[in-house]
Amino acid sequence: MKRILIVLLPLVAAAGALHAQATDTNQVDSLYLSPAMKALEEVKITAERPLYTVDGEKQLYNTADDPSVQTGTASDALQNAPGVEVDAEGNITLRGSQSVEVWINDRPSHLSGESLRQYIKTLPANAIERIEVITNPSARYGGGGPVVNIVTTAKVSRNEFFSLGTTANLRPQVSPWLSYVYANDRFSINAYVEYDYSHTWDDQQGTSLMRTPQGDTSVIKSHTSHSDYRRHGSYFYVGGHYDFDTQRTLAFWAGAYPSIYHYEGSTDMQWRELIYAPGDYGYRATQQGNIPQAGYYGGLDYTRQFNEDGKRLWLRAYANGFGYRSESVHSRQHYTQFDLDYTVHDLAVSNNWAQTSLDAGYTLPFAKHWELEVGAGASYDFPSSYVYTRDSLPTGIRDSLRSYTKTSDYFNYQAYASLLRRWGGMTVKAGLQIGEKRLSATHDGYTHVVTTGRWPVWVPSLHLSYRTPSMHNFSLSYTHRPSMPTAEDLTSFVFYDINSYSLGNPALVPSHTHNVEGGWNKFFEGFGNVGIAAYYYASTDEIATLNDVAYSRFFGREVNFTQPVNVGSSHTGGVSLNLTYRPTAMLNVRLMASLYNQGYHMQFREGELYDESLWTGSARLNVWAKLWERVQLFGTLSYSTRRLTLMQYSEPIFTADAGVSADLWQRRLSLYLNIKDIFASNVQQWGIANPYLATTGRRSASSRYVSVGVTFRFGKLELESRARKHEE
Fold this sequence. Notes:
There is one protein chain. 3% of the residues lie in helices and 68% in strands. By secondary structure, it is mainly β. The strands form four sheets. It has a 29-stranded mixed beta sheet that branches.
């Protein structure tokens, strides 16, 4: 637990009493010395900082004060942040939503997909100072969705640090890595490289039933499948900063992550047609392929600090890109209709190598308790391409219906302003962002389709927080947040598969969400932390994916299709609890639980309404204990009830993990052993509840395994907080 230390040098003067009055855990307001005081020796005043606090729109998790995650990664730390969950693949959700934007050190990370997963897998938790969860962000954060801001640790003095290690498990997976950090009073640089090999698998099975508009059963299907994945990957990073003087700093960072996947799989499919060409059908499909891919990101950040009161100017430039080439062979051998057997060669090439952004901001404290912040920025995705071709083997004849080329580009610009006012423990912050988003895309295949979109953006926000002298934290906030369709959402181009199809929806309009949240947080001496939050999100025209059934003249029967639609209205409302029991510095028991109701109301088909809601709950219990000052034990239990999305649901999931770690030779050597998913209970089950498409599915994967790790450290250990750090 972090302790704030105030050292008073020997004073000559005085007799009497020393009085200290603290208004929060990080600041001492005033010290009073009586004239009769004699010379004082060193005086130490300490205060406990709670693991969880509230500051305006932010819920803070002080990761540096939590010993239970210090030997883990950013993924472990994020699991303990209020409302945040990270799945086995590294995907981040917040209160069940995957629309989470990750910031690093108060700046957008621009990380997504594989680059984001690599980041949270490799960033060590002991490099994180705190995690800020902003479920209802103000205009400062763009209003594009919930934000998780990872704040890394501060600078260190001159020295060098080198570390290397490896992790391995019985999947199997092995990930050796090494890092180097150099820092002096004005300059620092850190570099990191990792190789990763993994072998995973999963088994799936499911059934589906399709009905006609009249309610008659048209098709009954069942399938089983097995997939096997092997991945060779690497990750490279270099970053640092240079201080021109005490007020001007230039930071830089760059990373790349090439990899290659090899996969093999097989599927057995059986179905019965009851209306169109009645009969029993089936086939066995096999597929194998390789996917080489690579991505990069990099940026520059210049900060000018004008004074100690917070007057600051910053400029930022950022670029990233990602591309892949997927080449595979698919075969189907039918059980009865041998004339339908086929083997095809699929090739997909995606190039999106230049996504750029420029941002600038200015913070101006004025008067005594006022602060104004203004900023502007623009981002442009240079034209990217996606080319998909399917050729029949061995003839090489092109499938012109399923081969196509797509090009697209996006352009956004925005400006924002926020005004903050403080009255003692009360903080009020109002903000507004305005801007515009544009897109254009072209699909060329059996038809030529051009898609364009242009929408104004405005995001008002209001946040209030109040902190009592006894450290009760209260918060209340409101934002309005729009969400725009993508080029794929809007296109009228139809993407045909063998037995299904998908298409966009040119009639889509932006969705609008009104968010209201309130909460209370309190740290109790000798016990720990208790936090309660309540929230309600009401959306109009939410954009969601619809799984449905329709008769297709092309297929000559009822088939499944997917399409984005505007939901008439939807809502999510609930409460969450964050409780930490910490009787000693060597024991930490944390419970995070939430209960919320999610519902949808829409015109489904002509004359039909879809109106459904569901109460959903989740809970996570973490226990950490330290023995003999060197050995740490930890365990996690997590459970979530049935969850709902548009006409889809997923069944409850329960998992249990446990582990032990040890630090030897004054932390020059660290060892750990983890057991993931002890009871192999992480089995995913889901279904589609469309009246015309009843589907169930089940997936089990290689989620239970034992992993071990070893780390060697050389140099000044204080620099470890910057090792493998991916931002400055």
